[in-house]
Amino acid sequence: MFQFGETSLAPHARQRDDTLRRASSSCISGGPPARRYRHVGDAAVDAVNALACDGIAMLDFGAPLETSRFIELAARLGRPIPLRSRSIQHAAEHDVVLNLGGGFELSGTSSDGATSAAPLLLHTEESRTPIDRQPRLLSLMCVSAPPHGGRTLLSPFGRVFKRLSPGQRSTLRRISYADHSASPTLLRGPATRPIFAFRDPGGTPLRWRVAPRAGLRVDATAGNRAIAALIQAMYASVHCALVWRPGLIVILDNRALFHGRTGVEQTDPTCRRHLKRIRLL
Questions:
Q1: 130 lies in which domain range?
Q2: How many structural domains compose the chain?
């Protein structure tokens, strides 16, 4: 088992800080326009096509849907994953919808940091868990949004992969998280459709190991350099920072995009950032 750490002067740390700064100051595109919908069925059909092409679907209903209709839309795209953690039950609806923000604060009990006002670093959902338990899609609906901050960052896997050297790719295909025996390697899949399973640890030490049946050995230096290169590539590949508005629904392919978020500016208590999230298999 090995451990990855960082210093604030490392190139990947500087790239992260620069990307978050530029996204917060609106120097990164706010994303493609969203088509307006009235019917959940029409939106679901278009979402399937958009996800297949771009790994993201943006659907604008003009106002937030009732929770039952939000679930109906999600269920047309996959199987909603029940929320089992006791620490988030006060923010859950109908067993599958998690309220992020909007007064449903999780105060350090959230495993993914999604309810914190600080930036949410780029990641894939449930990156440490076995492949069959990782969400395939994320469905997010905006209930309310502050005038500034809280923009969702997107970094396509294909762009990240191209920034990595062949040696770095090879190393990432052979290492995985050390704290779960069934964790997938950080990179898998063919070059035409690479799939990452990784969360930027920020300043938290990351324990990793050479995956079973990985073949060639990986030493600590090579593994840590590959992880640092991956983090740098993730932030260098951010291509949009979505601006939320009430009624906007964004569906993300967890096998095609890293996502994160700029810091949330909650200066006006009457205009909080409030999203609803459903994870889908």
A1: 29-110+118-154+248-280
A2: 1
- Residues 259, 279: Cα–Cα separation, whole Å: 14
Contact present, 134 and 127 (Cβ < 8 Å): yes
Q: Measured between alpha carbons, how far is 46 from 31 in angstroms, rounded to an integer?
A: 17
- E strands, 171-222, are 175-177, 187-188, 195-196, 206-210
Q: Which amino acid is at 31?
A: G
pLDDT digits (tens, 9 = 90+) for 79-125: 999 998 888 889 999 999 999 987 666 544 344 455 557 899 999 99
Residues in the chain where the model's pLDDT stays below 50: 107-112
Phi, psi of 48 (to 5 degrees): -60, -45
Per-residue tokens: 149 = 């901050």
H/E element, 120: strand 120-123
Contacts (Cβ under 8 Å, ≥6 apart) of 253: 51, 55, 56, 136, 137
**149 DSSP 8-state letter:** B
Can you list the positions of beta strands (E) in 15-91?
35-36, 56-60
Q: How far is CA 87 from the centre of its chain?
A: 21
Q: Cβ atoms within 10 A of the Cβ of 18, count?
A: 13
Domain assignment present for 4: no
pLDDT digits (tens, 9 = 90+) for 117-138: 789 999 999 999 999 999 999 9
Overall size of the chain counted in residues:
281
pTM here?
A: 0.92
Using alpha carbons only, how large is the chain's radius of gyration in Å?
Answer: 18
| Contact criterion met (CB below 8 Å) for 5 and 31 | no
Q: Is the dihedral of CA 220, 232, 145, 69 positive or negative?
A: negative
**CATH number, domain containing residue 127:** 3.60.130.10
Amino acid (1-letter code) at residue 179: D
Give residue 104's pLDDT: 65
How far is it, in rounded angstroms, from Cα 276 to Cα 98? 6
